[in-house]
Specification:
Largest sheet: 5 strands, parallel
Structural class: alpha/beta
Strand content: 5-15%
Radius of gyration: 28 Å
Distance between the termini: 80 Å
Number of strands: 12
Number of helices: 21
Shape: elongated
Helix content: 40-55%
């Protein structure tokens, strides 16, 4: 709750200034009235002030500050705060609180001002009993041992320097890599957004300090959606970690070749701790043949993280590939030079095709350890992605990097076949239209009905292809032959 003496102190400080002082210290006074209203609204939203008290004190503040030449739009504060408080108090249990109850999870809000400016009231209304609060770094880190924490909202200024919040984000991801952290701050700068996403933030939410302009109900809806998505992703990742740990259940529930899958996963990956009482695991295992229900997801970028919207669904044998990528931060498990694989994938969402082309040009070579946790070989990543275009038996999570495919056996193509496949992914030509002769240099002939598309404007495509082949396989001489 906002402390009454804090409210009185800041009001008295503002009231004490006469006209002459106001003229001389206008900037200081202007800050004083903002602080007054923030504390006042916080006290009201937290229940420390009744509605009539809130209105009377707000109007008194308006009158006093008006004498000093400063106008406060008190009516706007009152108009927005009172309906907001009433609506939030009367809201039924929402989708987010239902999910939190189902998972047995809570959201941790880390903000040194969570009581004084009304955030506690907001999050009590959104999350009900499923929220914990921390006002300092020490208090926040002490809460991380609580396994019921399912997501974190983190203010960067603890109390004044945004770098403190970024350092805390780093520590949180170091202790709980799988824990989604949403930045909740007034720092609306690209500099801090990029820093936070580089350290593994799930999303970046900018809070406003002007209470008169704050859209409380907009906050409610947006934060609810962000947290819902974060928790659903965490839930999906937890489900698969648990499935892979419960080997005996998998063997009894799945087809025979699960034995090979388990062996491969134990060899290649490390999975975090599990909750054996998970409702989701029991549900999925009860469906037995889970391999037909996995969707393939490649996630990345500035907070645009999603998850399997339907882990169990009726679209059994349809290849479903969802790509969520942005133009500045490519963090898929494929390396930059292999991003052409994305161009050949079967993509259901046509709206992102242009973004993929832009990303392909960027050739970002980074897999950030804070977001992925660990990396796998390029060849393995490409095999997984190629398999994903033909089967739904696979899943990729960038944050916890759960990556696997369920093919019964691996084939080992010849070098010539690898080069043909690589070229067919790069240019509009099928492997059967490509001839490769190994040697120094590698001799490549591409037979095409549209040689212009293969060569590109001023030879740009064929030049890029030559550079790619040289970096991957060795120097090559490429001839494009018109196919009549």
């Amino acid at each position: 709750m906002a402390k009454r003496n804090d409210l009185e102190e800041v009001l008295n400080r503002a009231y004490a200034l006469d006209q002459k002082e106001a003229d001389r210290e206008f900037a200081h006074l202007f800050k004083a009235h903002k602080a007054s209203m923030r504390i006042l609204v916080g006290a009201f939203n937290s229940g420390d002030l009744a509605e009539d008290q809130f209105i009377n004190v707000a109007k008194a503040l308006r009158d006093k500050m008006g004498h000093a030449g400063i106008v406060i739009d008190v009516d706007s504060y009152i108009r927005k705060s009172i309906p907001f408080r009433k609506k939030l108090k009367s809201r039924p249990k929402n989708e987010l609180t239902k999910l939190l109850s189902e998972l047995g999870k809570k959201v941790l809000l880390i903000d040194d001002e969570y009581e004084s400016v009304g955030w506690k009231f907001l999050f009590d209304a959104i999350l009900r009993e499923n929220v914990l609060y921390a006002a300092s770094k020490e208090e926040a880190l002490g809460n991380l041992g609580n396994l019921s924490i399912g997501a974190v909202l983190l203010d960067l200024k603890l109390p004044s320097d945004p770098e403190d919040g970024i350092a805390l984000l780093n520590e949180i991801k170091g202790k709980r890599l799988d824990l989604p952290v949403v930045i909740f701050t007034g720092e609306d700068t690209i500099k801090y957004q990029r820093k936070c996403f580089a350290e593994g933030a799930f999303d970046y939410f900018v809070k406003e300090f002007e209470e008169a302009d704050k859209n409380y109900l907009g906050y409610y809806q947006t934060l609810k959606e962000i947290l819902l998505t974060a928790l659903q992703q965490s839930k999906a990742g937890e489900v698969w970690r648990e499935i892979l740990n419960l080997e005996s259940d998998i063997r009894s529930a799945g087809p025979p070749y699960f034995e090979d899958v388990i062996h491969y996963l134990r060899k290649a990956y490390y999975f975090l701790t599990m909750r054996e009482d998970s409702w989701s695991v029991r549900t999925i295992l009860s469906r037995h043949d889970i391999t037909h229900y996995a969707e393939v997801i490649i996630q990345s970028a500035l907070g645009i993280e999603t998850l399997m919207d339907k882990l169990i669904n009726d679209r059994r044998n349809d290849p479903i590939v969802k790509l969520f990528l942005d133009k500045e931060s490519v963090e898929t498990i494929t390396m930059g030079k292999k991003l052409n694989i994305l161009r050949s994938m079967k993509i259901l969402d046509k709206n992102i095709e242009e973004e993929i082309e832009d990303i392909f040009k960027l050739r970002n070579d980074c897999v950030h350890p804070k977001r992925g946790g660990l990396t796998i070989s390029e060849k393995r990543a490409i095999n997984i992605l190629e398999a994903a275009t033909h089967t739904v038996r696979g899943i990729i999570f960038s944050d916890s990097l759960l990556a696997f495919h369920l093919t019964k056996e691996e084939t080992h193509p010849t070098k010539e076949e690898e080069i043909k496949k690589f070229i067919s992914d790069f240019v509009p030509a099928k492997p059967g239209e490509i001839a490769v002769q190994m040697g120094e240099p590698i001799k490549v002939k591409i037979y095409s009905q549209t040689p212009g598309k293969v060569i590109g404007k001023k030879g740009s495509v064929i030049k890029s292809l030559s550079e790619e082949i040289e970096s991957r396989f060795g120097r090559a001489k490429i001839d494009v032959i018109s196919k009549t």
